[in-house]
Amino acid sequence: MQITGKALLDARPEEREDLFIQKIRQCCVLFDFVSDPLSDLKWKEVKRSALNELVEYVTTQRGIVTEAIYPEGITMFAVNLFRTLPPPSNPNGAEFDPEEDEPTLEAAWPHLQIVYEFFLRFLESPDFQPNIAKRYIDQKFVLQLLDLFDSEDPRERDFLKTVLHRIYGKFLGLRAYIRKQINNIFYRYIYETQHHNGVAELLEILGSIINGFALPLKEEHKVFLLKVLLPLHKVKSLSVYHPQLAYCVVQFLEKDPSLTEPTIMGLLKFWPKVHSPKEVMFLNELEEILDVIEPAEFSKVMVPLFRQLAKCVSSPHFQVAERALYYWNNEYILSLISDNASMILPIMFPALYRNSKAHWNKTIHGLIYNALKLFMEMNQKLFDDCTQKYKAQREFEKEKSREDAWHKVYSLARQNVDIKNLPLSAIEQLKKETLTEPMEHDGTEMQSSSIRNVQKETVKEAKSPADAKNAARPLLRRKSDLPIDHTTAKALADYHSTSEHLNSSAAEKS
User: Fold this and answer.
1) CA 229 to chain centre
2) DSSP codes joined into one string, 104-115
3) What Å distances lie between residue 7 and 49, 56, 76, 117, CA to CA?
4) How far is 147 from 373, CA to CA, in rounded Å?
5) What phi and psi values does residue 321 have, to the nearest 5 degrees?
6) Residue 242's pLDDT is what?
7) What pLDDT, in 10s, does the model give residues 359-371?
8) N or C: which terminal CB in the chain sees fewer CB atoms within 10 Å?
9) Whole-prediction pTM
């Protein structure tokens, strides 16, 4: 490594450009921080000092970014940063949790951090001219930069986010290409790998990009919302980037309210079925959307929306039910509900009424009573109508359930082999009784009653013709004749009751 010991600020003005280039080239030398971290410690420190000097020089001096500096500075950045990333430390394991898991840090960060700082100062310098730099910062450069977003080191991704944002702002000709390549990263992430470390940072960049979209929105931007942002909700690691994703979606809806209906329908399409934490995230995002929704757009989606909310209120997971019921604490959402109570209350009432008694969590009971109270205050007559309809529906369901149960009993009885031995009229009587017997009767009584009736019918059908001829004769009951036992008869005759003996003794004494 060639050492350029003279400080830039100590050199004469005419020598500074050449010395600046020499120091930039000096920093193109790479060192091993992985296999042998303790090797070349002296030279690593020399490079670190040189990089710090470059950062200070670019930050404090003016008129130093000349045309000759552009290729040298961009090449130094590319040599140090554009590299093959190591394989993921946990490719098939659980999703990364920023609050619990420790990130994998880049070993060469002592040098890489200063290289990033130098390049940022270089891009932000008042002397920087994009027309010159575009010869070196081209599509290939951007593509290599985007590849680095898969780094597991969050510090590097944070610098990359800022660098890419500066490039997007200064190079107008690269904007469409950058958006297209970010789309490709997301498509690959959604439909192929479902693993990428930089989704949150890319969405954060897109959030500021969307904020600057001109109106009316281009068709490609609408497609990006519906075909990229919405499918990102179905990936299992949604929790890592959900706040940035929700921000992007809300930004789109603030720009163009007509996108509200397809957006909400898309969210309902991807609504999680068995993942409760993810369901809470959807509810959070949906409330953010409802905070900016237009009343006209709300009326288009309220029916499917509140059907889903009714399911959430009925969720056995109390956090899901609690988060859904918190909607009734939002004044704007409450005003939308009040304006459309005639449509919303019939949808929500069964779930609210049923879970006001049936839900296992007492906190949910209080929130449900609050929602019911608000509905009652909105429209008392409608609330009473819903109550009556709900009770009538419950009675109808009970009746239908009872009939279905007896139909099942009858069908099982028909499958019994002994049914063939019963007369047809007995079978019809059994069918009639099983379908009309009141549900409140005791099961044993119903069973014995049916059996008695069947027995009567069976006896009636089984009478022979001879019995019919003798029907007119009076029926005499024959008494049974006991066989005579002489010993028993003598004993009975000789028997005297004890009471008789006592009575005779009393008479003699008197």
Assistant:
1) 16
2) PPPTTHHHHHHH
3) 11, 11, 19, 19
4) 55
5) -65, -40
6) 95
7) 889 999 999 999 9
8) C
9) 0.75
Residue by residue, DSSP assigns 431-450 as HHHHHHS-TTS-HHHHHHHH
- Report CA-CA distances (Å) from 53 to 58, 66, 169, 452: 9, 18, 27, 107
- Please check whether residue 449 is in contact with residue 473, taking contact to mean a CB–CB distance below 8 angstroms: no
**pLDDT score at 499:** 57
Task: Scan for tokens 């007559």, then name that residue.
Answer: 381
- The string of DSSP letters for 271-322 reads --SS-HHHHHHHHHHHHHHHHH--HHHHHHHHHHHHHHHHHHHT-SSHHHHH
pLDDT band at residue 488 using 50, 70 and 90 as cut-offs: low
Q: 154: exposed, middle or buried (C-beta count within 10 Å: 0-12, 13-18, 19+)?
A: middle
Q: Rounded distance, CA 497 to CA 137, Å?
A: 133
For 300-311, what is the mean pLDDT?
95
Summarize pLDDT for 202-228 with one digit per residue, the tens. Answer: 999 999 999 989 889 999 999 999 999
Residues 279, 280, 281: CA angle, nearest 5 degrees: 90
Residue showing tokens 């969590």: 361
Cα–Cα distance for residue pair 459/473, rounded to 1 Å:
19
Check if the beta carbon of residue 80 is closer than 8 Å to that of residue 30. yes
Give the span between the Cα atoms of 129 and 306, in whole angstroms: 54
Copy the structure tokens of residue 299: 């009326």
Q: Report how far apart the first and last C-alpha atoms of the chain are (Å, whole number).
A: 152
- State the pLDDT confidence band at 42, using cuts at 50, 70 and 90: confident
